[in-house]
Design brief:
alpha+beta; about 230 residues; 7-stranded mixed beta sheet; Deoxyribonuclease I, Chain A; 3 helices
């Protein structure tokens, strides 16, 4: 396995946008999430902020490790034919760590502590992931809740990452709630070890159109891409 494709999405407990159609149901949202996963067709799906259910995708299975963060559940889905190659474990409340020994890489699905006051906690979690990673290479992926100014401190821990090509939080574009401060951020992003590179990164920042009503399924945008293991190229 020379590369691994991924999709990460914070689903905000599957709450409804204020712009959603009247009577919009959770099972309808789940169906659209399934469509997105099938269209992207990633090897790994990293969900954050699930409300106790995991969207069904017939091509993927839930790995047997999960945890409850400060808001909702984390869950990692893997393409069915890869499931027997993955060893996974929960790391505290914030991480599901999946190791693919054949590729020499681990993928950490994260939902790190929130807020400007949470920087020290976020750094501590990433430091722990790096220290216990069972493979030579590592991809930290998900809702990191990090601010751009934290990047240099994170890189000192042994992982690095470019910003996605567009903000993964944009409450000016995505007015999920009809209130609150409007700002952009890169909360959902990735960091990786030096032995891999991340390519073909895409942010899904377009609204859905259901019977003429445009709205978003979450206050976060989904992020997809592909990680290449340089030692296998």
């Amino acid at each position: 396995m020379k590369s691994i494709s991924f999709l990460s999405w914070n689903l905000n407990l599957l709450e409804n946008s204020h712009a959603a159609p009247v009577g919009w149901r959770m099972d309808q949202a789940e169906s659209l999430i399934r469509e997105r996963v099938l269209a992207v067709d990633p090897d790994f799906v990293c969900f954050q902020e699930l409300p106790g259910l995991v969207p069904y995708v017939e091509t993927h299975d839930l790995i047997p490790a999960n945890t409850v963060s400060h808001s909702g559940n984390l869950a990692t889905l893997v393409r069915r034919e890869l499931l027997d190659q993955v060893e996974s474990r929960a790391v505290g409340r914030n991480v599901v760590l999946s190791a693919i020994e054949s590729a020499g890489i681990s993928i950490a699905n994260v939902h790190l502590p929130p807020g400007g006051h949470g920087q020290a906690e976020r750094l501590a979690v990433i430091e722990r992931i790096v220290s216990i990673c069972p493979t030579p290479d590592l991809l930290v992926l998900g809702d990191t809740n990090t601010r751009i100014g934290e990047t240099s401190a994170i890189e000192e821990l042994g992982v690095r990452g470019d910003l996605p090509p567009a903000p993964t939080w944009d409450s000016r574009r995505n007015r999920f709630r009809d209130e609150g401060k409007r700002f952009t951020a890169y909360f959902t992003r990735y960091f990786h070890s030096n032995g891999v590179r991340v390519k073909d990164v895409k942010v899904f920042n377009q609204s859905w159109n259901v019977d003429g009503t445009r709205f978003f399924l979450s206050d976060h945008f989904a992020l997809a891409g592909r990680v290449e293991c340089l030692s296998l190229l």
